[in-house]
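Entry: RNA polymerase II-associated protein 1
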Amino acid sequence: MYARPKPGETEEDILRLQKEFEKNTAENKLKPAATVISNKTKDETKKSIVQKDEVNEFDINEQLANTFEDVPSNINLKNIIEKKSETPQSLFKFNKGKGFPQAKRRDLTVDSGKGSIFAQQMKKLKKEENIPMETDTIPIDIETIVIKEKTDPSTSKTNVSTSSKSEHLPSESSILSGSESKSIHQENLNIIKNMTQEELNDEREKLISMMDPAIIQFLRSRKKKDVIKTRNLPISEQNKAGEDMNVEEMETTADILTQPMADRWLNFDVVEANKLAWMKNIDIPKMKADKFEARFDFEGWILPYSQPEINEKNRTLYHHGEESGRPGYTLQELFQLSRSSVIQQKIIAINTIANILALNSTGIYDGIIDVPIEQIFFVIRFCLDDNTPGVLNASIKAMRNLIFSQVDETCLDSLLGFGLGLTQPVLSVDNEMEDDYTVNDQQLAEKNIVECLARTDILTRIRYIINTVKPPLETIVYCMDILIRLARDSEFILNKILECESLIENIISNFIPQVFNQDKNSTSPYGLPLLQAVKLIRIISSRSKSLAEKITKKYRILESIVLYISNDVFSSNVNGLKLQTECMHFLSLLVHYGLSLDYFSVLQPILLNLLDYHFKNTNLDMTTTYIRIGHVSSLLIFLSAVIKQNYSLILPFLPLLMQHCWPKWSSQLCNLKEYACGKLQLPASLICCMTALRRYQHIAEVDTVVLNIINSEGFKMVTDKITIYKASIWRLAERMDLVKLRLLMNRDFKSKVTMTTAVSMLSKL
């Protein structure tokens, strides 16, 4: 035996032992720990080796194919001995003394006073036959009956019937394949059915001894697993049985209890009122005070204190414990449902909260209810960490409705069409450049909810949602809206957005791509341009020229913007027009900084075609959509920004502008009969463009048209409407100053008219 390492030996000792072991191994001086001695003779050993080599030379598939064909022809058959067929024992034992069937004997004690003895005996037998046995009520399945009988173990193997043998045989072969596999398998089954159990065992042992163990293992693995049968019916059959049930004919609990002797039934002697209370009809309550706790429907609307009746439409609004007679759910009940382990309940609760916040942001609930913003914020932020698609979408939607005002964003986007939107407002409560960690989350949520949201790592969460979860388009849009609101906040929040690793890079690569997927069957928003993503980059760039220059150079976003404007695919649908409008607003901002003038020469023929198209198809009337008006307004504002930077670049546009667009749309303004503020983007942007031209060139025709506009009935009607709005806004300004208005928007979220809305309305005067 070779010495093993012992405790206390050093590394040098182990290396020395290793060298000795390798040396002895090379010189073949090591003796094995055990030796195997075979009892076989040399001839038997040689024969087994030859047989093993021969088996290994054949392929397994060939042996499988020839398993049942290569039958040796020189088989020495034994003497045929007729076996004694043992008569199977009878399963039923009869009493030989009484006979079968048992003879019925007359009762000797019967008196002949009441009719004949035979008649009395037959009457007695009929009564006995009508008495059911105890086992009659037990359903018996013939297939499940197994009769066991004590037999001799030596003879039990031979008493296997053909029927029981065939039950265990497979219906199809798991080894053979091909067109003749069924017929071959059937022949094999017929042979097996005619063989006794001893013959089957002998043939089985013979096959196992002849075949290679690897082939046997392979054949066993080919055998299909048994299908587990169940007694449960399919769901379709269960539902069908429920549909066939006539509910109207069923007895109610009250009808059952009216039956006689019902009070003496088992456990029915004591009436438990608390267990039967849920079965009684709901009483419609009456309002006793002017104030009551608000209850909401699933759309977020406040419901009246009570409703006259409960029908199929409002039945789902009564599934709550407290105030069972009132419809709807309170905020506290919705908060409790949002923590439910049932996904459907959780989604319904969060969506209802999101709808309440959406209506509250429009000012509908001003002076009616006080929405607990801080409490709702923490409930939503907790649910936002759930990766379930339905819960995630509802949570993102609720958070977006909490901090994002769609009315404000619409007004700010409209200002761009009036030529007043290059300077964007900063919606921040304070100008602190770092987070004050001495203030806890609850206090910070009461003071600045946007900064509290940034503290909860919402940027990291949004980055994970975009890169890993990859939700549908709706969730992505909500994420972009949240980032837009954060980008409008203080410099501290803006820097956190820019410092979040790969957030802006992933947004641009996924939603402002240079090469986009045009597959109409694709439902994924990834690889397609997204309007909200372009708007986010525009708002970040509007904070400073250095930021705009950094973004355009680092991410090469201008190539994508030029592609979207020049591609006819986007000009042929509504979403494409919105995207092109946002792209031209972004280019107007960059031209204002003097950054993208080189790309204007590339876009010049495309912009000429767009302007010519709008001249022929866009009119200043109520039938033209706001999307088309916004598209042509963004084009005119873009041209006016180019004129201010380099007048020579606009020269190819002058004939179309001066001779066609200016006379047409100015005359339509003079003849305007109806007022719509959004439709005035077209004449306002046109006047901005003419104003920029007049700084470089005095055109008498422009002055003449301006005088005609001032003296027209359309202009008078517009100014009268604006005067009414002016008086209303001045009365509003007397009641609240801008500081209070800004605090209302950022902190309490209760004011219907926010600062940006007021600025947009004042700018239209």
